[in-house]
Structures are given as structure tokens and as C-alpha cells.
Design a protein that fits this description.
The complex is a heterotrimer of chains A (about 550), B (about 375) and C (about 200). Chain B has about 375 residues and is of the alpha/beta class. In chain B, about 35% of the residues lie in helices and about 15% in strands. Chain B has 2 domains: about 35-145 and about 290-325, 3-Layer(aba) Sandwich (D-Maltodextrin-Binding Protein, domain 2); about 150-290 and about 340-375, Periplasmic binding protein-like II (D-Maltodextrin-Binding Protein, domain 2, 3-Layer(aba) Sandwich). Chain B contains 13 helices and 9 strands. In chain B, helix 7 packs parallel to helix 13. Helices cover about 35% and strands about 25% of the residues of chain C. The chains are: A mainly alpha (about 550), B alpha/beta (about 375), C alpha/beta (about 200). Chains A and B meet through helix 1, helix 5, helix 11, strand 1 and helix 15 of A and helix 1, helix 2, strand 2, helix 3 and strand 6 of B.
Chain lengths: ~550, ~375, ~200
């Protein structure tokens, strides 16, 4: 009976995933092509023929490339210091430096905007671009640390001692060339690859920090509202098609490169040996100290600014400490939704997303795992299908939901409170699969087999063996799902803009754009709330993270 | 994170190609409602959902008074700009959730009418309106609720005749002096942008120079690094140095001339205790008379939307437009208030652009195409 | 009491065919063969973890060829002890039985007071003893042992061989041991068969 139930569950998980994730994207694509016409050359030439999209592709590549270079440049010395030397409160320092990665992008954007304000940097045309790149580095720094630090910290010291005695390892430069570079390269490249992907699809940071410059992602978001309507703004459909195909291809190639590098990396990641005695770094604080300040500053700026209120009289502006911003943020008004509504919406969406994405992702992972023995081909097809959404950015997913679902049946989907959850499930489920699948693979079949020979029933095997053994991964997947859903900006922005289902990230953006001075402070207050939630989730997840996984989660 | 990807990669490509090719053969059938207003059917669900954009200030008191008076429950869908309102109406055509569209102006109205997303309202108590407000459109599908003139505003502290000369022709803005110092909202996404672009078609058609037309000027502006923003708010608040934007976080302040209302300096002054450094620039044919409309949405609750139209045009509400919504009222004989230098700092253009509603309706689409080309080719 | 009739199994290459074995009540049989000859697979087929290509299994005159492993009542001791890392020794033993016999079972294998020990702190021999105690707690009709002594050093394994044999004989539990080590096979079993 249970076998039967399992088969049904597996089949329905695959079906739900395809219905929920592939079909809307397909329908959206279908509709866009129906409006724009099937001539692909038009889609791409439209990018150059429209003022709104003209320089977007170039800008997207340029900023992503520079962001990647800067991230590696800043991240590598930090990873070196952390990995090679003994630090007081080592794991605490590491947590602080890796925390930016879990911060919602809109929080990062507000933080950097505040910093620019303090140092009056935005008015200079050259500084905002640097700040954007710096913000991307802040955001992705943890990738370099997470990928490279384990390689450095668990390296068998004898390997280094040996190279020093060999003719090609006499000088530090020699050792870099013949030892460190080949050892670290796959890890650095993997981190760079992910950084490139995240910067390439950056939306909130680009929207808030640039002066109207767009990435493909932010451009598609801003023109998305007029897409999918027959005979109306046809060129925008072309732009979206051209843009999303370029984006999809770049992401796909990056993902492939990433997985190739990860495999190489795994093979070079030395196995943990006994605790290695390390020295304290004499000048290390000059690297780690500024890094800690860099990691904390934008967040601190948000918290501080949420208590700063402006009053102005003629040409004079005075600032004072006050809780007015917080009060305003959580006040119920007709024209602006209250912080409580947004908080409740965000929390509810996050937990509903969790309730769907976690079991769905888990069953999918289990299905893939089960099929790997019986029918490896089918397993691989499902495996790839669950990865496909990685190559689809969040704005594309948002457009998928608006054009592929709401537009197809507006009566049903438009008024449905549940609709944004669909986007969140689309975004989080692939991550759940990616976290649970390796965990499932790492459980030796003997554990299950042994329990069988002891006469333990399948249900009891699930409850008292499988779930407890997967506990860490399940909790990490759950926290990750909650955090991603709470901080999700791109898809929500596209989907919920035409509705009154405001979430915290969306509220931060809209309230900031309202024209009263107090709304800016209120926006910081909401950002503080989101930031604290992310911090709590992150601290909680840290407890369950395997010590040396070195991955992104 | 991901393992064994070579084959997977090929599969991904295959799947995506299948997705694309499948789409080429299919076609979705779209039903377009026949719009016969006489047969208009709707359910009065006791709700009024207003789709509008952030700029128009519907205050909480205004809305709660309406709710108390009529018993309707009001909800707002606040979008970015007038263009998004039209997008929204088009997106949900035939299955509307909104009942009232607030903020389509005379540059957008015709597209909405052509696409049948509006319905004749049934408001009864409409007072006598200002003649000017009825010039662009005087029919049953939309009612003006506020108006104003769009024109260039400049920062008098910087454009003081010493550091920068006050322009006497639009061509002056293509001079080196103004490189990167002028900001316009985009005609593709915002109504002030469309209004100003429309004015330029008239300005350059009557400038006694047959060798250049309005698109040449836009190309020259693009070459002179004009800043184009998606909406008015970003242009005025983020880039313009002469307005209240400089108090807002994220202010850049890199432009000293902006497209805004001829009465925007009046608003600044009224807010700031009779003080402003911003001034309207009254060049002949460069200002555009903009009328904003309230319109019942086809598919929405006609009772609640019509009642709100009446409410919006009642004296108590409409006469507050200058201080609540920062626009001229549309009631006959109404004007801006005197206090705080509101009226004193507001300019009524001596010779606004003369573009009829028919011309706008006929040409808007091709103008936008020409504008796009002018900007791209620059 | 346990009858293996005409076993056939191939796994990429043929492993065994026409294999027959009859186990009498209380009898301990050792099956020897070189590595790769399919000894482990044979045991896995008997307890149901692998499906036979051909052949039948009769246990106490009931055919169990298609019965699920958890219903067969045949215990298996793996080559390396399979102990659940998230459970204590006691937790591991409880998987075999819910009763209070746990203390007795631990005493039986000479591990008194090990209840609360974490499994990763156990040595190889101790781990194998816990696995044995757990298997016996489930009261198997037959116990299969897959080279359980191979990962333990010689002195200890000699002792364990005789201890386990004694224990099984005391309980009258029939058992099949597979091993490549002829000496262990002879010391442990009543009868040695080669595969």
C-alpha cells in the first residue's frame, strides 16, 4: 500500500512541478511570441532599435563583469586570512562576513543608498556606478569566502611544506604559480561564476542605485506591464523576448560552467584531517577589520536612518532622532498599506511557500534518487527539469505568472491571494531539490536495508531513520525557503504591483517613492524589520550548516 | 551544486528549443468584448477599486469621507505612472477588477477609448465645468477632474543669468552649456513626458525653420546627454535641483531644467512659506494644457465609479485640488489659492501649444515611434 | 527449515546458478568463496534485499520468495556494522525491539553500560557487537552474517568468532556465514559449503 502511495506521490510531485513551473513559463512565452510575431531576428534587433532597451545589454554585461572582478579581488584576501590563520571568534567573524548573501537585495539597496546619502555620493555621476559594483561585491563576497576558505583551512600542511622543499616552490610567487593557483582556481572560478549570475540579474540594487540605467532584468520588469496584449506595445514584447533569451542563455552557460567547476572543486577539496595548528595573523586585522566594517555598515545605516527624521523650513533641513518613521510605517492608511499588512502578507506567503516547496522539492529529490537506479535516463530528465528554473530569473518568473497565468485566466488568478505564492514556489523549489538531493544521495542504502532486515516498517523507517538523518538539510532548506520568500523582490514586484497584496520588500520600495520626508524614514523602518528577520533566519541556519560544505547554502 | 551537467545542458537546450518551436505553431484565441454601453451589465458589489498612479494625492480623509457618505468600500491600486494605468486596463480587458481609472490624461485617453476599456459613466450631478477643461474631450466616457499646464521649470539660483543664461528658445538647450543638465520624463511611459513631446511637435512646426523638425531637436537633445526618466517623480525629485527633491534620500541634483507644471513653483512656494527657487519658463508653444480624467472602467461597478466621479467634482473635493493634488480644479470659475504665494509663483502660459485632441489621437502612436527613432539614432 | 532451491542470479556477469542449500534447525553453515563470487549477493537474496533471477526460498515450509524483507524475519549482519549515527546505542537497539530486553542483550554481547554511548565513539568490534545484539533482539528465524569479522583485527576476531557461535548455539538460532577466510569458516560453522 505504502509502495503504491509513494508511486502516486512521486508522480503527482512531478506533475505539480511541471504544471506550476514549466507550464506558466511556456504559456507566457507562447503569448509573447503570439503578440510579437515569430521572427526571432526582430526580437534581437528590437533591443537596439528602442530607446528604452538600447544600451541595456552592454550595461548588463559590463557591470556584471566588473562586479565579479571586484568581488574576487576583495574576497580572496579575506578568505586567505580566515582560512590560513587562527582567529578569535573565528566562526562569528565568518558569519558576519557571509551574512550579506542572505540579505534581501532590496535591503542591500536601501543600505547602500543610505551610505551614499551620508557621504553625498549619488550626485556625482561617476560614484553611483562604483557604488553599484561595490554593492554587488558586498552581496556576493560570501560566495568567495564560502567557496575558498574551506580549501585553505583544511589543507594538509604537509603539502605546503613539501612544495617549499621542491625547486619550483622556493619563492612565494613560485608557490602561487605551482601550488596555490591550481588548487584554488576552481573554487575562485565557481564563486566568480555565481557572482556573475547574481550581478547579471540584479534588479533591486540597479533600480535604486543607478540613475535610470537598466540591466536586462530591471528593464524587463519596467516594461513588463504592457506585455502580452495583442496589438498593443508590440515592440515591448519583442524586447522582452530578445532580452529573456539572452538572459536565459547566459544563465544556462554559467550554470553549466558552474557545475563543471564544482565537480573539479570537489575533487580538489582536501578531506578534513585532524585539527591543524595555525598561527595568528600579524597584519590580518588590516584585511579582516575593514571587511567586517564593510559588511555591517549598510545594515547599520538602515537601522540608524530608520530613527532619523527630517524637518525642513525654507532652505534649511534639520534632522532629529525620532520613532515617527516606525509609527508611520505601521500606521493603517488608505493610500499606503501598513507595515503590519505587509508583514503578515510576507510571513503568510513565506509559510505557504514553505508548506508547498519543501514537500514538493523533497518528493522530487526522492523521485530523482529512486529513479537513478531503476531508470537513470528518466532520473536525469527530471533532474534537469528541476534545474531549469535556475536559468530563469525572478523577473522572468514574475512575467511567467502574470502573462502565463493571470493573463490567461484573470478572473481566477487575479483576485487570488495565493497567486504570488506560485512565483515564490517556482523560485524556491529548485533550491530545495538542490539541498535535499545530495543529502539523500549521501545516505548509504545500507541504513535502510539494515532496518528492513530488522523488520522495521516503511513508515517507521521514514519517521525514525530517514527524517532524522536528513534533519540538518531539511531545516536548512526550510530556512532558505523562508528567507528567499520573505526577501523576494523581482517576481513579487512584477506580480503584486497591480494588486494590494503588498509584501515587505515591495512596501520598502513603494513607500520610499511616496513624496513626504517621513516616508523615507518609514521605508528604512520596514527595511530594518526585513533585515532583522533575515538575520534571525541566517543565525538559525548557521547552526545546522555542515562545517565544511563550502557551497553557497 | 549541480552535477553531471554536460548532457543536462544539451537537454536544457532541447527543452527550451521545443518550447520555442511549439509556440510558433500555436495561436491563442482572444475574445474581444463587444462594447455596447446600453446593454452594460455589472454587479454592484459594494466596492470601489480605483486604479491610479502615485502622484495623484487621494488623501485618507477624502476617501474615508466618501466611504462614510456612500457606504462603498474603497481600495486603491497604485501604479507607477499614467502609462501603467493604461497597461493595467489593457491587461485585464474583459475581466476587469478595477471600477474607476483615475489619472489618464488627454494624451492617453484616446488609446483607452479606442481599445474599449472604458464605459459611459452614469453620474448625474456634474456641475458646470471650466470650458478649457472640456476642449480636449467632452463626452460620456471620461470626466475631467483636474488640469494644469506642463512646461519647463528651472532653478533660479543656478540659472541666474550669470552661471547659466535663461533659455529663450528650445534650441538653447542643445548648447554645450546644458550638456547633461536637462531632465525630461519619457513620453513612452509618463503623461507629463507625452504632454511635453506633444508641445514640441507644435513648437517646431511653427518656428519658421523648415530645415529642421521636432525630431531633430530631440536628436540634438539626446546628443547633448539629456536625462530621460521613466516618470515625472524621478525627473523632478531625483534630478532637478530647484525642487523639494533635494530633501529626499537618493537625490542626485544633476539637472537645472525639468519638465513639470507651470504651477509647480507655486506648489513649492505654498509648501515652503512663500519661498521657492524654482520658476516656470514660459516659451511660446512649449507649454501643454493637460487635463486629467476620471473614467468608469468597462467591466467594473458603474454605480460606485459614477458616485465617485460626482464626489470628485463636488465643490468640497474639487476646490481642494490645488492643495491636495497640486493641480488646478476644473469647476467653472475656480482658481489656485492666493496664500503661500501659490498663485503668485504659478504661471499661466501666454501662448501654449495648440494641438487638438483629434491631432493627438491620430498621431500619438507615430509621434512616439518618431521620438524613439530620434533618440536611438542620435 | 530454510531451503534455497535452484538459486540463479547474475549481476552484469553470472554470479551463481543452480545453488541449493538446506539449513537444519539450529545449524550454523559457512559459505566460502573468493571475493567477487557473489557471496554477499547470495545473502541479500535470501533476506530479500535483492530479487532472484530464478529460484525459490522456503522458510519453515512456507514459500517466502516474494515476501518483503521486513516481513521475512531473517536478520542480516553487514560486513561493516550499520549503526544509525543520530541514535545512541540504546536507540539503535530499540529498532530491533521495543522491550526492556535491551539491557540483557547488551550484557549478552558483553557491553554492559553502553546504553547511552554515541555510536561514533564505538570501536569496530564494539560496533559489530551492538549490531549483533540488535539483530538478535529482533528474534530472527535465521541470522545471516556477511563477513562480520573481517574488519576486526585477528586476536579480537578469534574471540568474537567463538563468542558469537556460543551465543547462537545457546539460543538455537540457525545462521549462515559467508566469508573468504576458511579458518574462520571452520571455527564458526557446523558445516562449510563453497560457492
Amino acid at each position: 500500500m505504502l509502495e503504491m502511495f509513494k508511486k502516486v506521490a512521486n508522480a503527482s510531485a512531478v506533475t505539480i512541478f511541471i504544471l506550476l513551473i514549466i507550464v506558466p513559463l511556456w504559456l507566457a512565452l507562447d503569448r509573447l511570441i503570439w503578440v510579437a510575431g515569430p521572427d526571432m531576428t526582430n526580437w534581437f534587433s528590437a533591443l537596439n532599435e528602442n530607446y528604452i532597451s538600447k544600451e541595456v545589454v552592454g550595461f548588463t554585461f559590463l557591470q556584471a563583469t566588473l562586479s565579479t572582478i571586484l568581488t574576487v579581488f576583495i574576497g580572496l584576501p579575506i578568505a586567505w586570512q580566515l582560512g590560513r590563520y587562527e582567529w578569535p571568534f573565528q566562526s562569528f567573524i565568518k558569519s558576519i562576513l557571509t551574512m550579506p548573501f542572505v540579505m534581501p537585495s532590496i535591503v542591500a539597496a536601501i543600505g547602500f543608498l543610505n551610505l551614499m546619502e551620508i557621504y553625498d555620493l549619488r550626485s556625482n555621476e561617476n560614484t553611483w556606478f562604483t557604488i553599484l559594483i561595490l554593492a554587488h561585491a558586498w552581496f556576493n563576497l560570501s560566495l568567495v569566502i564560502r567557496f575558498c576558505e574551506p580549501v585553505l583551512s583544511t589543507l594538509d600542511p604537509r603539502l605546503e611544506e613539501q612544495i617549499k622543499l621542491l625547486p619550483n616552490g622556493q619563492s612565494f610567487l613560485d608557490r602561487i604559480k605551482h601550488f596555490w593557483a591550481p588548487l584554488l582556481l576552481p573554487s575562485v572560478a565557481a564563486a566568480a561564476c555565481m557572482t556573475f549570475v547574481f550581478s547579471f540579474t540584479s534588479f533591486a540594487l540597479v533600480k535604486l542605485i543607478t540613475l535610470g540605467e537598466n540591466t536586462i532584468e530591471s528593464m524587463m520588469a519596467s516594461i513588463g506591464s504592457s506585455a502580452g496584449i495583442e496589438g498593443y506595445q508590440v515592440s515591448r514584447n519583442e524586447i522582452i523576448l530578445g532580452g529573456s533569451i539572452i538572459q536565459f542563455t547566459v544563465l544556462l552557460i554559467s550554470l553549466w560552467l558552474m557545475s563543471y567547476l564544482q565537480q573539479k572543486r570537489q575533487s580538489l577539496l582536501p578531506k578534513a584531517s585532524e585539527k591543524i595548528a595555525k598561527k595568528r595573523s600579524r597584519y590580518g586585522w588590516f584585511v579582516v577589520g575593514p571587511a567586517i566594517i564593510f559588511a555591517i555598515a549598510p545594515l547599520l545605516a538602515i537601522l540608524v536612518d530608520s530613527f532619523r527624521v527630517q524637518t525642513r523650513e525654507q532652505d534649511n533641513v534639520t534632522e532629529s532622532w525620532s520613532t515617527e518613521g516606525w509609527e508611520y510605517a505601521f500606521k493603517e492608511t488608505v493610500s499606503l498599506s501598513s507595515g503590519w499588512d505587509a508583514l503578515i502578507n510576507s510571513l503568510s506567503y513565506a509559510f505557504v511557500t514553505l508548506a508547498i516547496a519543501l514537500p514538493l522539492g523533497w518528493i522530487l529529490a526522492q523521485t530523482i534518487k529512486d529513479l537513478e537506479v531503476k531508470s537513470p535516463k528518466l532520473a536525469r530528465i527530471i533532474d534537469v527539469t528541476t534545474m531549469l528554473p535556475f536559468a530563469v530569473s525572478s523577473v522572468m518568473i514574475g512575467l511567467g505568472v502574470t502573462i502565463g497565468m493571470i493573463k490567461i485566466n484573470p478572473e481566477f488568478f487575479y483576485q487570488l491571494w495565493f497567486t504570488p505564492v506560485i512565483a515564490h514556489v517556482m523560485i524556491t523549489t529548485p533550491f530545495v531539490v538542490r539541498i535535499i538531493l545530495p543529502a539523500l544521495r549521501s545516505i548509504e542504502p545500507a541504513y535502510d536495508e539494515c532496518a528492513m532486515t530488522l523488520g522495521v516498517t516503511p513508515f517507521k523507517r521514514l519517521i525514525s531513520i530517514k527524517i532524522p538523518m536528513l534533519r540538518g538539510s531539511i531545516i536548512i532548506a526550510a530556512i532558505f525557503t523562508l528567507a528567499m520568500s520573505m526577501g523576494e523582490f523581482g517576481a513579487s514586484w512584477v506580480v503584486t504591483r497591480n494588486s494590494d497584496w503588498t509584501t515587505l520588500p515591495i512596501m520598502i520600495d513603494t513607500i520610499r517613492e511616496a513624496y513626504k520626508p517621513i516616508t523615507n524614514t518609514a521605508s528604512n523602518a520596514i527595511a530594518s524589520v526585513l533585515m532583522l528577520i533575515a538575520l534571525v533566519l541566517f543565525t538559525w541556519a548557521e547552526k545546522f550548516r555542515p562545517k565544511r560544505d563550502g557551497g553557497m547554502f | 551544486m549541480v552535477k553531471k551537467m554536460k548532457k543536462e545542458f544539451a537537454c536544457c537546450l532541447l527543452v527550451s528549443m521545443m518550447m520555442v518551436s511549439g509556440c510558433l505553431t500555436e495561436k491563442i484565441d482572444e475574445t474581444i468584448d463587444d462594447l455596447v454601453t446600453d446593454d452594460y451589465q455589472f454587479v454592484d458589489d459594494g466596492e470601489l477599486i480605483i486604479v491610479t498612479y502615485d502622484v495623484s494625492g487621494l488623501t485618507d480623509t477624502m476617501i474615508s469621507t466618501f466611504e462614510n457618505d456612500t457606504g462603498y468600500d474603497v481600495k486603491l491600486i497604485k501604479l507607477d505612472d499614467a502609462g501603467s494605468i493604461l497597461d493595467h486596463l489593457m491587461q485585464y480587458k474583459g475581466v476587469q477588477i478595477a471600477d474607476l481609472a483615475l489619472g489618464l490624461d488627454n494624451t492617453y485617453l484616446q488609446t483607452a477609448l479606442d481599445n474599449g476599456v472604458l464605459v459611459e459613466h452614469i453620474a448625474q450631478n456634474i456641475p458646470e465645468l471650466d470650458e478649457k477643461a472640456l476642449i480636449p474631450y467632452d463626452g460620456p466616457y471620461a470626466v475631467p477632474f483636474d488640469q494644469g499646464y506642463m512646461c519647463l521649470n528651472y532653478d533660479t539660483q543656478i540659472v541666474d543669468g550669470v552661471n547659466y543664461t535663461v533659455p529663450t528658445s528650445l534650441w538653447d538647450l542643445t548648447e554645450d552649456e546644458w550638456k547633461g543638465k536637462v531632465v525630461f520624463p519619457s513620453p513612452e511611459t509618463s503623461s507629463p513626458g507625452r504632454a511635453f513631446m506633444t508641445a514640441t511637435t507644435d513648437y517646431f512646426a511653427n518656428d519658421n525653420d523648415s530645415t529642421t523638425d521636432w525630431t531633430d531637436w530631440w536628436s540634438a537633445m539626446a546628443a547633448n546627454d539629456v536625462i530621460i526618466t521613466s516618470g515625472w517623480g524621478e525627473a523632478y525629485e531625483t534630478h532637478y535641483t530647484g525642487g523639494y527633491g533635494e530633501w529626499i534620500d537618493g537625490h542626485v541634483g544633476d539637472a537645472h531644467i525639468v519638465v513639470s507644471y507651470c504651477h509647480s513653483p507655486g506648489v513649492e512656494s505654498w509648501y515652503n512659506g512663500n519661498w521657492t527657487k524654482s520658476a516656470a519658463l514660459d516659451l511660446p508653444r512649449s507649454a501643454f494644457h493637460q487635463v486629467e480624467y476620471a473614467a468608469a472602467v468597462h467591466g467594473g461597478n458603474l454605480n460606485s465609479s459614477s458616485e465617485f466621479i460626482e464626489y470628485l467634482l463636488s465643490e468640497q473635493v474639487n476646490n481642494n485640488m490645488p492643495t491636495e493634488n497640486f493641480m488646478y480644479p476644473v469647476l467653472n470659475g475656480s482658481d489656485l489659492p492666493e496664500d503661500g504665494g501659490y498663485r503668485y509663483h504659478s504661471v499661466i502660459p501666454a501662448h501654449p501649444a495648440e494641438v487638438s485632441a483629434e491631432e493627438i489621437a491620430q498621431n500619438m502612436e507615430s509621434w512616439l515611434e518618431d521620438w524613439n527613432r530620434a533618440m536611438v539614432d542620435a | 527449515m530454510l531451503e534455497c532451491i535452484d538459486f540463479e542470479k547474475s549481476f552484469e556477469k553470472p554470479l551463481f546458478s543452480g545453488f541449493n542449500l538446506q539449513l537444519k534447525p539450529g545449524e550454523i553453515v559457512a559459505i566460502t568463496g573468493p571475493s567477487g563470487s557473489g557471496k554477499t549477493t547470495l545473502l541479500r537474496c535470501i533476506c530479500g534485499l535483492e530479487i532472484l533471477d530464478k529460484g525459490r526460498i522456503i522458510l519453515n515450509s512456507e514459500e517466502i520468495t516474494d515476501v518483503k524483507p521486513e516481513r521475512r524475519g531473517i536478520g542480516l549482519i553487514f560486513q561493516k556494522p550499520v549503526l544509525y549515527p543520530h541514535l545512541s546505542v540504546e536507540g539503535n537497539l530499540k529498532l530491533g525491539s521495543k522491550n526492556k530486553e535491551i539491557f540483557d542483550a547488551l550484557e549478552e554481547v558483553g557491553l554492559q553500560g553502553f546504553n547511552q554511548r554515541r555510536v561514533e565513539t564505538l570501536s569496530g568490534g564494539e560496533g559489530q557487537r551492538v549490531a549483533l545484539a540488535r539483530a538478535l533482539l529482533a528474534n530472527p528465524t535465521v541470522l545471516l552474517l556477511d563477513e562480520p569479522f573481517s574488519s576486526i583485527d585477528d586476536d579480537l576476531s578469534d574471540r568474537l568468532v567463538s563468542e558469537v557461535r556460543e551465543l547462537l548455539k545457546k539460543r538455537g538460532c540457525p545462521a549462515i556465514l559467508v566469508t573468504h577466510n576458511k579458518k574462520i569458516a571452520e571455527n564458526f560453522a557446523d558445516r562449510v559449503v563453497s560457492l
